[in-house]
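User: Fold this; tokens only.

Assistant: Input:
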Amino acid sequence: MGSVLIEGGTVVTMDRGRRTLEDASVLVEDGKVAAVGRRDSVGGKRAEERIDARGMAVIPGLVDTHLHLAQSLIRGYADDLSLIGWLRERVWPMQGNFTKEDGRASARLSLLEMMKSGTTSFVGVDVVSRYGFEGIAEEVSASGMRGALAKSIMDSGSYGGERRIMHPGLIEERAESLAEAKSMAGRWNGVRDGRVKIWLAPRSLGGCSRGLYEEVAELAVGLKTGVTMHLAEVKEDVRYAKEAFGMTPVEFAEAVGLAGPHVLFAHMVWADDREIGRLAATKTNVAHNPSSNLKLASGVPRVPEMLEAGVNVGLGCDGAPCNNSYDMVREMKLAAVIQKARLLDPTAMPAQRVLEMATIGGARAMGMEKDVGSIEVGKRADLVLVDLRKPHLTPHPNVVSSIVYSAMGSDVDTVMVEGKVIVKGGSSLTLDEAAVVREASERAAGLAERSGIRAGD
């Protein structure tokens, strides 16, 4: 794979000491970080390729812990609606009309946007059969990114107390869901030197029977893989859990075996103190999705309280209909400022803590903290160069604060995954950008027509 020397940048290591090194260099050999330090100590190393990082910040690749690859095609078609109406009237009807070719096109568009804005690893949730699971896995593999694809598992078309409200095009039978999960895990889990993983994604409460949740928990252990699901996203989820099971959402999840370091709950907006304590005790992870929670008016989760209790929290963009963006850089600023306003405390969510969520915290949520999430010798070289020579990033006396509060995904210049450059000069080297955008636009128009939905309705 060769060697690359990234020299002269401001290196934000996110190592245990959270060091930021000025005028520093990173040496990459055979896909891993071989040296990191001051340029005069690392710069003398011989390398086959050199990248001039002067005027740039070198940060660990960003980790998006919750996103929907199949939703970029429906960007702009489901704005300004409440969650149930948003799902029933727009999102599910459009997704229920997907073809496998639409699934590929949507995945490519999502991957392109993510890599260009600095995301190197992600958890892609709720992959249903009609999206073409095999094709999506092939696209992730070809993109050069690192992704966990979570197979949607269900035995009901319900959501909470709303019976059979899912679009029929999305409903799968229990046996069908489980069979595809097992098949895909057998073919794809851990391929490309671990870049592609297959997880399990049981539907939200109401979408699975208790027995199916228990079966998913057992299957995950057998497959040695991760589990992710939406939990306590809206108040109605809490009410439903108490009425249906006599427990809170977290209590129910733990009761059916869905707890532990391999489990990742998205949203957790309505977690109470006891639930936060149980998440911490079981080392269960949380994916925070600020844009989605705000746009759908779901509420603001108690992230500082979770972190203080010892819960590992990652950051996620969710999907294009509820965020309109897969830009983790933009998501970081929102994650910081909403907690300050909620608690009326400007110190509630410092920039350093938010960057931790987007890097090492996300890596931990994916079970990869020993491999990625920080720039340290021996770790895989998933690196991002952010161009600081922009008006909105000048001056930048505290680089971490500048990245969180001032930067945008479009400031990303170079992206490297496992030592391979996949974005250079802001352009993708693994995807044909013009072709991806052209096909996505055409397919989105066809999808909307088949679904009977017009933008602006």
